[in-house]
Amino acid sequence: MTRDRFAQIGLDRLVRLDWLEKVSTIALSGLPVKDIRTILLEDLRPAFRSDRTDVRGSLDKTVTILMKVWVTPPSELDSLWKDGLELLRLLPKSEHLSVHWGMVTAVYTFWLSVGAQVGRLLKLQGAAVATQVQRRLREQYGERETVSRRTRYVLRSYLDWGVLQETGTKGIYAARTALAVDDSRLIAWLAEASLHARANGSVPLKDLIDSPSFFPFRIKPIQADNLLKASPNLDVIRHGLDEDLVILKR
Fold this sequence. Notes:
By secondary structure, the protein is α+β, with helices and mostly antiparallel strands. It has a domain of 107 residues. Helix content is 55%, strand content 12%. It is built from eleven helices and eight strands. Strands 1-3-2 form a three-stranded antiparallel sheet. Strand 7 and strand 8 form a beta hairpin. Helix 2 crosses helix 3 and helix 4 runs antiparallel to helix 9. It is globular and about 60 Å long. The mean pLDDT is 92.
């Protein structure tokens, strides 16, 4: 596993949900990587049309992010990626958001970090204040303006995805209605995606399902045995008297 992936931020652009839906649909068609990139550059160009040269750079960087999620992910995520594409093929579009969330989480672990802080604040005070989220992320990643700026990109992405909504006060966000996740295959896949975003690759089952990083979802409780049946890539170790530790198989 690439250890640098857990320290890198990577997300330096707004990631729109419909763009991820587009790239995953093209990826499912089986086109060569070069052709997929060409299509994305052409299709997304109108959203970046400007005389400014930095906007053209933004288009290229955005396409690179999208490609890394659904076309050329890190090699250690190969199985997760293939299973994720299969879920997108099988599941109704109304459930695609959770799959995109899981894949972005695994590829860009900063997405999980921001989600965890947002989820904690929503649970504690019913709202997520952007400055509080940024401060907590700077404590984790270092006191850099880059951290604050890229946290803003992720928060804007959450708004675009519809998992957060603006309140009457600038920079303060509220949660939308949580999306139900009941399919055991999807639950197991999301668990695997979350574990790929954690440096130690393990977490207690209850903490995994109830993770604040999954704040947009209402995940149905699942027994350890059923989790294992749904995914060949997970294992469970009994930890203490009544705690199941979920780990990634190596």
